[in-house]
């Protein structure tokens, strides 16, 4: 049965036909605005994490699949923060939208440190994505490169007036986590 209380919205609004789009709370900006570029990079990263997650499931890496799912949900939180203009941040918080906290950054840091310890190796050479291991490895490396781009794009909107430094740190740690997971999976 369809829940009639759910409001639906057409994807085809035609509001973007002029080259502008909405931030949260209706502020219009160019599709080339730094916030939109950063969110596009995070969206692309999220899609590739979905591909890696699908392969992790197919290749029976259940713990990794679960962790990638968590990262995808955390990226949605980051995208909401980025899509909110500085002036609208109090409203965003008042409306109860969740944001990333130091808890997520600390968790990624701890997991990356544990992976590095579990690998018990000193990395001397460059990793060649796709050169060994299952498809999951190549997709994790692809996600890592997109994560680095997203980090740079978020950094471009992070200044004294707009503090998104916690997202830069989070993305930096995520790229470490993805690289280490690719190396871990390829050794299994």
The CATH C-level name is: Mainly Alpha
Largest sheet: 2 strands, antiparallel
With helices defined by DSSP (H or I, 4 residues minimum), what is the helix count? 6
The helical percent reads 55-70%
* Unreliable sequence segments: none
What is the architecture at the second tier of CATH?
Up-down Bundle
Could you spell the SSE succession in H and E letters? EEHHHHHH
N-to-C CA distance: 45 Å
Output the radius of gyration: 18 Å
Strand order of the largest sheet: 1-2
- Outline type: globular
- The tally of strands reads 2
What share of the residues does DSSP label as strand, in percent?
under 5%
How is the secondary structure organized here?
Layout: E1 20-22, E2 28-30, H1 34-58, H2 62-82, H3 89-94, H4 102-119, H5 135-155, H6 165-186
Antiparallel strand pairs: 1-2
Helix pairs in contact: 1-2, 1-5, 4-6, 5-6
Please give a structural write-up.
This protein has 188 residues and is mostly helical. It has one domain (33-186): Hypothetical Protein Ta1238, Chain: A (Up-down Bundle), CATH 1.20.1200. The protein contains 6 helices and 2 strands. It has helices spanning 34-58, 62-82, 89-94, 102-119, 135-155, 165-186; strands at residues 20-22, 28-30. It has a two-stranded antiparallel sheet with strand order 1-2.
Structure described in brief:
With 188 residues, the chain is mostly helical.
Observed structural traits:
single chain, 188 residues, mainly alpha, Hypothetical Protein Ta1238, Chain: A, two-stranded antiparallel ribbon, 60% helix
């Amino acid at each position: 049965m369809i829940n009639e209380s759910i409001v639906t919205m057409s994807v085809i609004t035609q509001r973007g036909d002029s080259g502008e789009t909405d931030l949260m709370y209706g502020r219009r900006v160019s599709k080339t605005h730094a916030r939109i570029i950063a969110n596009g990079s995070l969206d692309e990263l999220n899609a590739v994490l979905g591909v890696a997650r699908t392969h992790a499931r197919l290749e029976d890496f259940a713990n990794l699949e679960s962790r990638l799912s968590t990262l995808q949900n955390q990226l949605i939180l980051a995208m909401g923060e980025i899509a909110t203009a500085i002036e609208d941040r109090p409203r965003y918080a008042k409306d109860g939208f969740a944001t990333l906290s130091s808890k997520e950054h600390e968790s990624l840091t701890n997991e990356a440190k544990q992976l590095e310890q579990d690998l018990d190796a000193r990395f001397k050479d460059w990793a060649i994505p796709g050169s060994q291991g299952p498809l999951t490895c190549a997709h994790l490396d692809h996600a890592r490169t997109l994560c680095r781009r997203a980090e740079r794009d978020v950094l471009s909107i992070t200044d004294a007036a707009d503090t998104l430094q916690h997202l830069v740190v989070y993305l930096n740690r995520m790229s470490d986590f993805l690289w280490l997971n690719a190396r871990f999976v390829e050794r299994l």
